[in-house]
Every structure is written in structure tokens, then in C-alpha cells.
Amino acid sequence: MSDFEKICHAVLDGEDELALAEAEQLLAAGKAPLTIINDGLIAAMSEVGRLFKEGDLFVPEVMMSAHTVAGVIEALRPHLGAEAANRGRIVIGTVKGDLHDIGKNLVALLLSSNGFTVIDLGNDVAPERFLQAAEEHRADIVGLSALLTTTMSNMRATIEAFVAAGRRDSVRIIIGGAPVTADYAAEIGADGYSEDATEAVELCRRLMEVGA
Ligand code: B1M
């Protein structure tokens, strides 16, 4: 079994301690934290998704895997380093009704390790809360994440809340998450879309350059 298969299995089994130990071993063997995230954690969650869809895993088991991933993400955080530069302030969260926060957490992690100040509002965040936090923290960018086709519409609702409050021009709004596309971003008037966490960092860099 390859090193990454071992950590994938630990995530699938919801074995927190084992997954942490495998991650430590991979780090000690010289694997980059980002590689562990992509080839270990994200690969494992794709398999969890496949098994869940086919009815071979149920919600409690998926929650255990999610918990295991969250623990490894926290353990990897110090190893990602942090750029000293202050590239911009980003308020991020999953939209109202959506509890899927693993992808959002990865986006927040990579942004903060790339010099952005991240204000993470967590999951199930109402439009008014995004608006309030953007004002309070003088955000340059607001990041919305959604994993459900049923909660995607709350991205539109959040953007509409900024428009209604007369605050749309003072902030960039980006979106992401498995069911979201660039076309959808354009349709709801977002300033950008990215497919994964690495792309989200590039997108935020570009938006800050344009805004400078
Ligand atoms: Co649920 N779930 N889930 N789930 N879950 C999905 C999303 C689903 C596709 C599974 C399936 O049926 N195949 C399906 C959605 C179907 C649909 O909408 N069409 C689904 C469902 C139906 C549900 C429930 C309704 C199930 C139920 O209760 N019967 C329920 C809803 C709860 C709710 O939110 N209200 C539910 C619950 C859960 C758990 C709580 C058990 C758990 C979440 C735990 C947690 O996150 N803390 C869970 C999980 C884990 C999944 C799957 C298996 C994995 C999601 C994940 O973490 N992926 C998922 C199946 C799948 O995705 N294949 C599934 C790994 C993560 C790294 O990827 O989140 O896509 P992702 O993030 C990526 C990119 O999308 C992007 O970058 C990230 C890193 O590369 N990205 C952004 C994400 N946000 C971004 C923001 C950006 C930019 C990029 O800018 C701001």
C-alpha cells in the first residue's frame, strides 16, 4: 500500500490518530503539505463521496471522515508557513443552509498561508452576517462556498444583500464549491470563481492587483 493510500484509508475509516500519524510520516519523508492535502485528504474525500453516493457509506460515517480530515488540516497548518505580506482581507464562509466546510477550510488555510488575512465565519452563514462581517473587518474580498445545489441560490441572495445595502461596489465577491461554475458566477454577478483552493489564491491575488 502506498503512503497516500494509507492516509486515504485512515480518513475513510474515520481514524483520527492514525491519519495524523500517517500525515506526520509523510511530512517526515519530505512530502509537501499541499501534496498531502491533494493526494491524501482530497483524494480520500472523493472516495468518501463516491461510496456515499452508491449507498455504501452513511451520513455518520461521512461525518467521521470529515472530522478526521479537519484534524489533519489543523496539524498541517504550521507546516504550510505564512507569508508576512498583508495581501488583503478576506471574509469567508459557507452560505446559509450549507454545512460542508472542508473545501472552505482548505481555501481559508491556503489564503492565510499566502499572506491574506482571513476572517472565517464558519458554515451556514446568512447573507446579513456576510454583510455585517465585511463592513466590520473592512474586507477586500468576500468568499462564498456551497456544496449543495439547493444552497447555491443563497450565493445569489448574499450578493443581492450587498446590492440592497449599497455595499456591492466596495467589495469583491468570489464563489466556489463542487456544483458551482464560472457561468453561474457570471450569472449571479460574482467577481470570480475558482475550482479549487490553489486557484482561489491566484484569483484573490489577481483581484487585489486589479483593485490596487
Ligand atoms: Co454531503 N453532500 N450532504 N455531507 N457531502 C455532497 C456534497 C453530495 C455531492 C454527496 C452525494 O450525494 N454524492 C450531496 C450533494 C448533492 C447535490 O446537492 N446535488 C450531499 C448531500 C445530499 C448531503 C445531505 C443533504 C445528506 C443528507 O443529510 N441526506 C447533507 C446536507 C447537509 C447540509 O449542508 N445542510 C449532507 C451532509 C454532509 C456531512 C455533514 C455528513 C458531510 C460534511 C461535513 C463537513 O464538511 N464538515 C458531507 C460530506 C463530507 C460530503 C461529501 C462526501 C464530501 C464533500 C467534501 O468535503 N469534499 C460530498 C460528496 C463529494 O463532494 N463528492 C457530499 C472535499 C472538499 C475538499 O472538496 O468541498 O468540493 P470541496 O472543495 C473544493 C472545491 O470545491 C473548491 O476548493 C475546495 C478544495 O479544492 N472550493 C472553493 C470549495 N469552496 C470554495 C470557495 C471558493 C473557491 C473554491 O471561494 C470562496
Description:
By secondary structure, the protein is α/β, with parallel strands linked by helices. The chain has two domains: 5-83, Methyltransferase, Methionine Synthase (B12-binding Domains), Chain A, domain 1, CATH 1.10.1240; 89-211, Cobalamin-binding domain (Rossmann fold), CATH 3.40.50.280. 56% of the residues lie in helices and 11% in strands. It is built from nine helices and five strands. The chain has helices at 3-12, 16-28, 33-53, 59-76, 102-113, 127-136, 153-164, 182-188, 197-211; strands spanning 88-94, 116-120, 141-145, 172-176, 192-193. Strands 2-1-3-4-5 form a five-stranded parallel beta sheet, sandwiched between helices. α8 links the parallel β4 and β5 (192-193). α1 (3-12) packs across α3, α2 (16-28) runs parallel beside α4 and α4 packs parallel to α5. The radius of gyration is 17 Å and the shape is globular. The mean pLDDT is 94. CO-5-methoxybenzimidazolylcobamide (B1M) binds next to α3, α4, α5, β3 and β4. CO-5-methoxybenzimidazolylcobamide binds next to α3, α4, α5, β3 and β4.
Annotate the secondary structure layout:
Elements: H1 3-12, H2 16-28, H3 33-53, H4 59-76, E1 88-94, H5 102-113, E2 116-120, H6 127-136, E3 141-145, H7 153-164, E4 172-176, H8 182-188, E5 192-193, H9 197-211
Parallel strand pairs: 1-2, 1-3, 3-4, 4-5
Name some characteristics of this structure.
5 strands; alpha/beta; globular; 11% strand; 2 domains; 9 helices; Rossmann fold; binds CO-5-methoxybenzimidazolylcobamide; five-stranded parallel beta sheet; 212 residues
